[in-house]
């Protein structure tokens, strides 16, 4: 490719990957506080990235989430956006009118907004509840957010029991009713049971 700077691209991706710790801190704090659903908000190219995140999550998770076009949301609204909603967005300029108005509306509806705003001094960077400013690699940033939400949701429903020095893992009691019934019978019989984690 003409004018392709491989090192520049590698540096850009590595810079985005370096954001992982901060992304995970923000998502972990959101998960600890609790949330109802996730809204990926975008317009133009950021809308395309939101749709990619949606496809990634629906393949691997049952978390309640959806994508919303910012212009449509500002015009028609969405009853699913409200208290407990986490809106996730990305903006290069931080001043796209539909995104600015979308954030105002989402916050007015009770949602919290996590924004990747390339320019730290931009209007959107000052409006959102959680902000990370780093240019480019929008999809990578979105996927790191999605992956952390999915990991936390997985851990939330994962149970570990230790019985007679053996560890048993399952995702939820509904996924292993027989094991759960056996566990209850052990407790009722007051057999050796070391606890839950």
Structural write-up:
The chain is an alpha/beta fold and 197 residues long. The chain contains eight helices and eight strands, in the order H-H-E-H-E-H-E-H-E-H-E-H-E-E-H-E. Strand 1 (37-42), helix 3 and strand 2 form a beta-alpha-beta unit. Helix 3 (45-60) runs parallel beside helix 7 and helix 4 packs across helix 5 (97-108). The longest helix is centred in the last third of the chain and has 19 residues, at 138-156. It is globular, with a radius of gyration of 21 Å.
List keywords for this structure.
globular, 197 residues, alpha/beta, five-stranded parallel sheet
Detail the topology: elements first, then pairings.
Layout: H1 6-17, H2 20-33, E1 37-42, H3 45-60, E2 65-69, H4 70-76, E3 85-91, H5 97-108, E4 112-117, H6 123-127, E5 130-132, H7 138-156, E6 159-163, E7 166-170, H8 177-188, E8 195-196
Parallel strand pairs: 1-2, 1-3, 3-4, 4-5
Antiparallel strand pairs: 6-7, 6-8
How many helices? The count is: 8
Strand content: 15-25%
pLDDT < 50 runs, ≥5 residues: 157-161, 163-176, 190-197
Give the class from helix and strand content and strand pairing. alpha/beta
Number of strands: 8
Distance between the termini: 53 Å
The whole-angstrom Rg is 21 Å
Strand order of the largest sheet: 2-1-3-4-5
**Helix content range:** 40-55%
Largest sheet: 5 strands, parallel
Mean pLDDT: 85
Shape: globular
């Amino acid at each position: 490719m003409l004018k392709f700077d491989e090192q520049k691209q590698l540096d850009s991706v590595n810079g985005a990957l370096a954001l992982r710790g901060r992304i995970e801190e923000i998502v972990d704090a959101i998960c600890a506080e609790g949330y109802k659903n996730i809204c990926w908000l975008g317009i133009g190219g950021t809308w395309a990235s939101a749709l990619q995140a949606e496809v990634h999550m629906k393949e691997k998770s049952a978390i309640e989430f959806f994508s919303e076009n910012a212009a449509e949301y500002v015009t028609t609204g969405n009853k699913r956006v409200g208290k407990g909603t986490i809106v996730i967005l990305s903006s290069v300029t931080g001043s796209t009118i539909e995104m600015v108005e979308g954030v105002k509306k989402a916050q007015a509806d009770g949602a919290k907004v996590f924004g990747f705003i390339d320019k730290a001094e931009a209007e959107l960077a000052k409006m959102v509840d959680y902000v990370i400013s780093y240019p480019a690699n929008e999809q990578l940033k979105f996927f790191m957010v999605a992956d952390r939400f999915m990991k936390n949701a997985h851990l939330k429903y994962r149970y570990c029991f230790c019985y007679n020095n053996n560890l048993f893992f399952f995702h939820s009691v509904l996924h292993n009713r027989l094991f759960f019934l056996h566990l209850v019978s052990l407790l009722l019989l007051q057999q050796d049971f070391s606890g839950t984690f």
